[in-house]
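Dear colleagues,

As part of the handover before I leave the project, I'm documenting each prediction I ran so the next person doesn't have to rerun anything. This entry is a single chain, and its sequence is reproduced below.
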Amino acid sequence: MTTTDFLTAWRAGNTQFTLQTSGSTGAPKPITLTRAQMEASARLTGQTFGLHPGDRALVCLNTSYIAGVMMLVRGEVLGLELTIVPPAGNPLVGFDPATTQFDFAAFVPLQLQTILADAGPDNVPVSLPLLNRMKAILIGGAATSAALENALQVIESPVYATYGMTETVSHIAIRRLNGPQKSDLFTVLPGVRVGTDERGCLHITAAATNHERIQTNDDVELIDTEDTVRFRLLGRADSIINTGGVKVQPEAVEAIIQQQLLQWHLAPRLFITGLPDERLGQRVVLFLENQPLATDEWIAIQTAVRDAVGPYAVPKAWFTVDRFSETATGKVDRKGTVITMVV
């Protein structure tokens, strides 16, 4: 469904809309959402970020998927003035940073990384004045790297990582990424109820889920206080590597490697996965996008992982790929990348 088709259907009063999941953790599948669910999600976003009628929002995500569609719905429900541009690496190109006013925008990590890398002669991001005038900036669709989180500290406006999915009708929790309120914990939004199953994986119930429980495969550490519910995202239960009988969470290893690379001013996309191994069952391996490693760098990475989480989590090999395979929404397709490399 195109942007025009969706807005036409919405303004005609349609009560159900069918969207595709992103396909980042499995085959894309159609999901039908009700108008009431989408309106509830939009109102929650408006309440969370103090959005009011007449505020200006930039829509620069693919509107065939939930993140982009919900920007359209927020415009309709909250009375926002929308500027809609095609998805691009740097969607702010063409806007005068000195005079353009956006109050709200959502990006995928690669977009914001590209925006911040576009610097002028003074080494300051060209679009920084535009970003600094926003009420809130959202980043979703994929995890933010250590390098990007460092780069975000130049932005004065609050920047948030979002947690959500098509089934929850966009975000149900947010994590501050910059400034003194920066945190490694996601804060659950008002009216959203969460808990964990026997695996420690998050489940979600909210008006945006039609008050039905959505069970995820996301392994979390839940921190429930008197007035606020927070959680630390540990990784996905279905991505755990069993190597020699020891379970390794790839996301924890990835964070260690990102920090090590950052010391050398390197910030490639990367991921950890398990490949079949006759002795171990699975061996831990590292995939890097367009980034070779010198022998001493590889040894330093292995040492950093061993010191932080133990010997079984240490990658046994690394591969560099010119460009990772991606899903339709720009997320890294780990399985596709591995197949391309190994086959």
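The mean pLDDT is 93. DSSP finds nine helices and 18 strands in the chain.

All the best with the project,
I.
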